[in-house]
Amino acid sequence: MNAAPPLRKIIHVDMDAFYASVEQRDDPALRGKPVAVGGGHRGVVVAASYEARVFGVRSAMPSVTASRKCPDLVFVKPRFDAYRAVSNQIRAIFADYTEQIEPLSLDEAFLDVTEDIRGLGTARAIAEEIRARIRTETGLTASAGVSYCKFIAKLASDHNKPDGICVIPPDRGAAFVATLPVKRLHGVGPVTAAKMERLGIHTGADLATWSLPELEAHFGSSGGWYWRIARGIDDRPVRAHRNAKSVSAERTFDEDLSDPAALAEQLDRVAALAWQRIERSGSAGRTVTLKVKFADFAMISRSKSFVLPITDHAAFAAAGQSLLRALIPVPKGIRLLGLGVHSIVSAEDRAPLQLGLAI
What we know:
This protein is of the alpha+beta class. It is 36% helix and 23% strand. It has helices spanning 18-26, 50-53, 63-69, 80-94, 123-138, 150-157, 173-178, 190-198, 204-208, 212-219, 222-230, 260-281, 313-325; strands at 10-15, 35-38, 45-48, 74-76, 101-105, 108-112, 142-147, 165-167, 246-257, 285-294, 299-310, 334-344. Strand 5 and strand 6 (108-112) form a beta hairpin. Helix 10 crosses helix 11 and helix 12 packs antiparallel against helix 13.
């Protein structure tokens, strides 16, 4: 008779206000002050320190709005080379505890520590040692979630932020999810959360009362995922060599838009959010793709490819604007714009973009 497989032990490590914390670490004058990475004319906040978050400043917020919420906000330009260097330090620490590391971005990763190669005894002990080493070796703090699956571990890492740890064993998984609002559940976006709330689904506990057929009737193929996570079920493995196929962002508008200037302004915001995700993931791609959903829910996409990968925000945004201008005037209002990169290439294949090489 085959023995049962060992209980999985998953850690999700998430750096605390990573970009802003690096800036405060490297510039003592910024410590204790509300700091936003990003900004500029018509720019957005890439990251905000905890001092800024007290005022309601959040990532992807227009810099004008952030300044209005926090008049003393200090904007600093992003230094992605510095953030990547620190990220590499942190991943080297992870590698001392497991080979099963799935980076999600520069500042967070899943670790499968089912095999305790350092003999520390528990996943919590491993997570605590990793957090202590991050503090000692980088001068930064990290929060960690420890559980039996990726979904619960990621939720748990956010539970005691900043500089905290949360452990959720298997017998508490479903009960933990039950206490959370559905908008906190990963995989439930703002539009889906609003739809759930219209259906009377406000918490994980509410979600768990719905049957699989009912959820599939309202949410299609995603219904199965919602049914499982409401019960604390997630069998996805930690993928040590996870490669993104694309990185993008999109925005649904409160009112349908057709004015070219308004559409261009909104696309700039989408491009800024998408570029933030691209930089966080360390990705680079050769193809820019514009996604457009019209008022009648008809959807189209337009793409532009380059010989070399795009490594510059301005070039990425310009390519998106070029694709949008080709659609003007629009025959009907637009309710959603999305922008992203595809044809992701490895780091060693990257080189600066040459716009003259479009194909």
